[in-house]
Design a protein that fits this description.
The chain has about 60 residues and is of the alpha+beta class. It is about 25% helix and about 20% strand. The chain has one domain: 2-Layer Sandwich (Alpha-Beta Plaits). It starts with a strand and ends with a strand. The relative contact order is 0.36. Bound molecules: iron/sulfur cluster (SF4). Ferredoxins are iron-sulfur proteins that transfer electrons in a wide variety of metabolic reactions.
Length: about 60
Amino acid sequence: MKAEVDAAKCQGHARCWEICPEVFALDEEGFGSVVDPEVPVELEAKAREAADNCPERAIVLA
Ligand code: SF4
């Protein structure tokens, strides 16, 4: 699975990072990004939970 943060939608709530820091990181201003766009199978459920909890629906999983 691949993960991406849509920078145009992200408002910096940091929920992605709180839920799944293995996949999501925050920049100096608190906006989300991905540590590695390729999500390992064992982290897929956590990455999905983070995406479901993003208030801006800024996380794209494919
Ligand atoms: S939870 Fe969503 S809005 Fe918040 S930092 Fe992560 S991607 Fe951005």
